Amino acid sequence: MRALCALTILHPETSPQPILTKALDTLFREFWVNQKKTNEKPILEEVLKSVLGEGETKKLMEMAGKEGKELLGKNTDKALEDGAFGLPVCIIPLQRLCSALLKVLGWGWSSDPEVL
Description:
By secondary structure, the chain is an all-alpha fold. The protein has helices spanning 2-10, 17-33, 41-52, 54-81, 94-105.
C-alpha cells in the first residue's frame, strides 16, 4: 500500500488513475492468478518493474518508506473520518449520488435541498 501511495506522488498529474490501475491490475494478476507473494519486497519490485520500468520502480520503492507511508496514514485517517471501516469503501457525496440516480431515472434535480 505504501508503494501504491508513493505511485500517486510520483504521478501528480490531474489523475494518476491510469498508471495506478495498471499497477493494481498487474499486482492482482500476479497474486491471485500466478500466486506470487507480492507482499515480499523483491517480488513486489519485480512486478512493479514490469509496469513502471527499473528506474521508476527504484525511485518508487525509495519513496514508499517515507512519503508513501505518510500519505497512507493521511488516507487512512480520512477514510476513518468518513466512516469507512473494514471493507473496500467508496465515499460519494450524497448530492452527487442523488443527481446520478435522478439522471438515470430521467428526473430533474432541484436546488432546494428539501425537494428531490
